[in-house]
UniProtKB/TrEMBL annotation:
SMART domains, alphabetized: HECTc
Gene3D superfamilies xref list: Hect, E3 ligase catalytic domain (3.30.2410.10), Hect, E3 ligase catalytic domains (3.90.1750.10), Regulator of chromosome condensation 1/beta-lactamase-inhibitor protein II (2.130.10.30)
Protein name: HECT domain-containing protein
PROSITE patterns named in the record: HECT, RCC1_2, RCC1_3
Length: 976
């Protein structure tokens, strides 16, 4: 091991190039090869240099003693009373040592005798790395925690604005979850490097030495964004400059260039990392910064390059001059027998033919070998030590975030977590084979790790734990409380961090995303089951896990639906809701349970299937009606209208008569004796939908190519017309009736806060959508010929749209603006009036639980007619299915055209639209009233109860005539 630069340290076991030349000339040099003890660690500070030997002892020499005689320059001895030194770092006035047990000792050279002082605050932390600036120190423990102490004049401790200097090490919590690979410090600046190459800097920045693009000091660790994805593997700091080395062998420098130490062929400052171009293509393997100079080692060429200040010979060039470009150090090949290590500090440079092991200490991580070691020692004499290791490993987010990395982890970003979760699955499944060991790990995670997770993580590497823990939960299916703690931690995250986590979830492979959903789903189901069967109050636990499921559902939607909706449904909810309708021993509990379902769980609609949503919607409506009846018994929700002037009467009733929309709607047609048990209301909505379409001037614009309607951009109808239309739709949903105005799905998306796209325009107006799609596919020449601007239907769709020509570059903007104009801008008032009216007509806000498709189906019904289902589900009174009249009835029915079949459906139910379950969910009852002279009577339908009173006709011909006539003119008569 040799040294060149300011002074001679032969007494430490280091030699210079030349005994007589302080400049390190490349001639007549020799290497001390027969040292008594092998040197394993070296550190150079501003005023001292220290070494450690393989025996765990060391020596240090002060540069202040350079003028003293050789007899008085004898190095001071370094030793710990009961431990061996493993590594050390020199500051301006102290040496910080790490023992082989991981304890930290500090020696101040200004205080004699030289007795290392143990830093008790770090006892038991098992420190693996230390780095000293001039007057501050940072230390990294085996569990990934970072500690700082010393002077804090420029924020170099990273403890925040106004942080004081401290002689006691304090944990730097802002990086507590980042898996760190190394730490380093310069004059008054500090750096930390993550295992995946993220660089964090803090402290003094007067010359841009932090690389963050300005000269402002940083009092907390700040990401050096310009180094993201550069795959940084090593950082070295000088007094006011910094160098970083990438995995590909590139060197970037920044900070002060006063002496040429940045290697950019100039002496100016660089505020951001800049590539050292002269080293391009050399594949540098090591870098080291002295106070004002820099070294770079290219192992393949067996060459060390130096640049910067050379006034004391630290460049090894044989001249006492500065260099602002990298030039080779004049060192013969005999020194490059091994891998070699370069070091620098102060005004010295050092080269060792061997790799110094103390530079390779890493934080703990979980892998297959570690788990096997724990399992093999379980219950043995070594188990006590292993228990401590388990606690230390699984209580730290850093260790988990450092584990299970894939080959692409240096490209960690919001698109790539850097994890190979298949490794985590294998390891945790092996852990699951030892139940006691698994419980111990689960307990540490629940009570120590999760409570310690920061609410504002530093980045993706800090969030890996949220992807790893579900794999542990997967083998801990009975530990539901741990799942709840995990859910709490997720929603403690700051919104911007939760957004990043959602992005990482969306990039998970389907199998792992499904496992995550299943883990949370299983816990939520179990809590609900306990509530239903044991009457135990798990409402908080259910809500927290349901909230995570809802968030995962939203992620699933944005990532092209990795999973079907049914994976999120909790079937236990339906059983809980139904149990609220039974006569229970504890009415108060079940009432509270019902309120919990309506008021809290309804906020997470993804966990409800369609039928359960509808059941909850109906129960809530019923409870609202009962409560309102007690408070406002005189105000009802009745409509009395004349069929001949239906629309006028309806609008007048809604405008002029106070009504309570919480009450069930009761419709009465004047001059008809029907009593509304549901059938009259349904017919009312079926008829009024036709009336709206025939209204002049029109409220709705009909698109001929689709048969669908949309709001008129410039309506001539009354100011409250769209509000009244919304009220009618809301009343229909609340009354569980169908009203089909032939709106597209876009309406229901807008109602639920989902913005329509070109896909929705294709449903409403296929021709327009096709033209827009062709516009996106056209060549640039064709676009020029079209000479389109940003207008449609005489309106500018963006500000100054007439001045903007549609080009290849902005055509997507044009299409988006076009769709936005059709669905939003041109009908803003109309839609807002409609939505306000809808919320008034349907006072239960639970309609917001439905998906757009579900809301559309519930309001408009569906048209998937499987007519055989109608026959299959039919019931009979005073008839048998084999009776001739019944056989004739079905024969005639199936002879009917599709339109006539729909007329029969309207005749029976008041609408030709079907509920969600289609005809399979409709049961009609065919009744024989045993009337005398049956051929004289027509069939009669009771729409409220879906009963068909079918006389027992003498022949199929009579039945056909009477039946067809009845369904053709059913609105002219009929009993309800």
């Amino acid at each position: 091991m040799i040294c060149w630069g300011e002074t001679n340290f032969r007494e430490l076991g280091l030699d210079r190039f030349c005994q007589d030349d302080a400049l390190g000339i490349a001639e007549n040099h020799h290497l001390v090869t027969a040292q008594k003890d092998k040197i394993t660690a070296v550190s150079v500070g501003r005023r001292m240099i220290a070494v450690v030997t393989e025996k765990g002892e060391g020596k240090f020499c002060l540069q202040d003693d350079i003028s003293q005689t050789k007899s008085r320059r004898k190095p001071a001895h370094l030793a710990l009373s009961r431990e061996k030194i493993d590594s050390l770092s020199c500051g301006a006035d102290c040496i910080v040592m790490v023992s082989r047990k991981g304890n930290v000792f500090q020696l101040n050279y200004r205080i004699k005798p030289y007795i290392p002082r143990c830093l008790s605050a770090l006892n038991g932390r098992h420190v693996i790395q230390v780095a000293c600036g001039d007057h501050h120190t940072i230390a990294l423990s085996r569990d990934g925690q970072l500690f700082t102490w010393g002077e804090n004049s420029n924020g170099q401790l990273g403890q925040g604005e106004g942080g004081r200097s401290s002689e006691t090490p304090k944990c730097l919590f802002s990086l507590s979850g980042i898996p760190l690979a190394m730490i380093t410090a310069g004059g008054d600046q500090s750096f930390a490097l993550s295992v995946s190459g993220a660089v964090f800097a803090w402290g003094k920045n007067s010359a841009g030495q932090l690389g963050v693009g300005d000269k402002e000091d940083r009092h907390v660790p700040t990401t050096v964004k310009s180094l993201n994805l550069k795959r940084t593997v090593f950082i070295s700091c000088g007094d006011k400059h910094t160098a970083i080395l990438t995995k590909g062998g590139l060197v970037f420098t920044f900070g002060s260039g006063e002496y040429g130490q940045l290697g950019h062929s100039s002496n100016r400052e660089e505020l951001q990392p800049r590539l050292v171009a002269e080293l391009w293509g050399s594949s540098v393997t090591q870098i080291a910064c002295g106070r004002h100079h820099t070294l770079a080692y290219v192992e393949s060429l067996k060459t060390i390059y130096s640049f910067g200040c050379g006034e004391q010979g630290q460049l090894g060039s044989g001249q006492a001059t500065n260099q602002n470009v990298p030039l080779p150090v004049h060192l013969s090949s005999e020194f490059y027998d091994g891998i070699g290590t370069i070091l620098a500090g102060g005004n010295q440079s050092i080269f060792s033919p061997e790799r110094l092991a103390s530079l390779s200490k890493k934080i703990a991580s979980v892998d297959n070998n570690l788990i096997e070691k724990w399992i093999s020692t379980f219950g043995s004499k070594l188990w006590k030590a292993m228990k401590k290791e388990i606690i230390q490993t699984f209580s730290s987010a850093s260790t988990l975030n450092c584990s299970f990395l894939n080959q692409r982890h240096y490209q960690t970003s919001m698109e790539n977590s850097g994890l190979d979760l298949s490794l985590a699955r294998i390891v945790f499944e092996k852990l699951g084979n030892n139940e006691n060991l698994l419980k111990k790990v689960g307990s540490v995670v629940q009570h120590t790790l999760i409570p310690s997770l920061p609410i504002d993580p530093s980045g993706v590497e800090d969030l890996r734990v949220y992807l790893i823990l579900p794999e542990l939960l997967r083998v801990l299916p009975t530990d539901r409380d741990l799942c709840v703690k995990f859910a709490e931690a997720v929603f403690r995250l700051q919104p911007q961090c939760l957004k990043i986590l959602e992005g990482l979830w969306s990039k998970l492979p389907r199998a792992f995303f499904k496992s995550l959903v299943e883990v949370v789903h299983s816990a939520s189901t179990w809590f609900l089951y306990q509530m239903r069967t044991e009457r135990r109050d798990y409402r908080t636990s259910v809500e927290k896990t349901a909230e995570v499921l809802q968030k995962l559902y939203e992620v699933n939607l944005k990532s092209s639906q990795k999973l079907e909706y049914k994976n999120f449904y909790i079937n236990e909810i339906r059983l809980c809701i139904e149990s609220c309708g039974t006569v229970p021993p504890d009415m108060n509990f079940l009432y509270a349970m019902n309120q919990f379902m309506v008021q809290r769980l309804a906020l997470y609609p993804s966990i409800f299937d369609m039928e359960t949503k509808w059941l909850l919607f109906r129960i809530n409506n019923l409870s609202g009606f009962v409560e309102n009846s007690l408070l406002n018994p005189l105000i009802q929700n009745d409509l009395c209208v004349n069929r001949r002037s239906l629309l006028t009467d309806t609008f007048q009733e809604l405008r002029n008569n106070p009504r309570q929309y919480l009450c069930p709607l009761k419709v009465k047609f004047k001059y008809e004796n029907g009593i509304d048990h549901g059938g009259v209301s349904q017919e009312f909505f079926s008829v009024i939908a036709r009336e709206i379409h025939s209204l002049q001037p029109k409220m709705l614009e009909l698109f001929e190519d689709s048969g669908l309607v949309w709001f008129m951009p410039e309506g001539h109808c009354d100011d409250d017309a769209y509000s009244l239309l919304g009220i009618l739709c809301g009343m229909a949903l609340y009354r569980e009736c169908f009203v089909n105005f032939h709106f597209p799905l876009a309406l229901f998306k807008k109602m639920l806060g989902v913005m329509p796209t070109l896909e929705e325009l294709e449903e409403l107006s296929p021709i327009e959508a096709r033209n827009l799609q062709e516009l996106l596919n056209e060549d640039e020449e064709v676009l020029e010929l079209l000479d389109l601007d940003f207008t449609t239907r005489g309106h500018e769709i963006v500000p100054n749209g007439r001045e903007m020509t549609v080009t290849k570059c902005n055509r997507w903007q044009f299409v988006e603006a076009y769709v936005d104009f059709i669905f939003n801008k041109s009908v803003k008032k109309q839609f807002n009036d409609f939505l306000g009216g809808f919320s008034q007509g349907c006072p239960s806000q639970l309609w917001k639980m439905f998906l757009p498709e579900e809301l559309m189906a519930r309001l408009c019904g569906n048209i998937n007619y499987s007519w055989e289902e109608l026959k299959k589900n039919a019931l009979y009174e005073a008839y048998e299915p084999t009776d001739e009249n019944i056989q004739n009835f079905w024969t005639v029915f199936f002879e009917l055209s599709e339109e006539k079949k729909k007329d029969f459906l309207s005749y029976m139910t008041g609408s030709d639209r079907l509920p969600i379950g289609g005809l399979a969910s409709i049961k009609i009852t065919i009744v024989n009233q045993n009337k005398p002279n049956p051929d004289d009577f027509y069939p009669v339908a009771n729409t409220c109860y879906r009963c068909l009173y079918l006389p027992n006709y003498s022949s199929i011909h009579v039945l056909r005539e009477k039946f067809v006539h009845a369904i053709s003119f059913y609105e002219e008569f009929g009993e309800y």
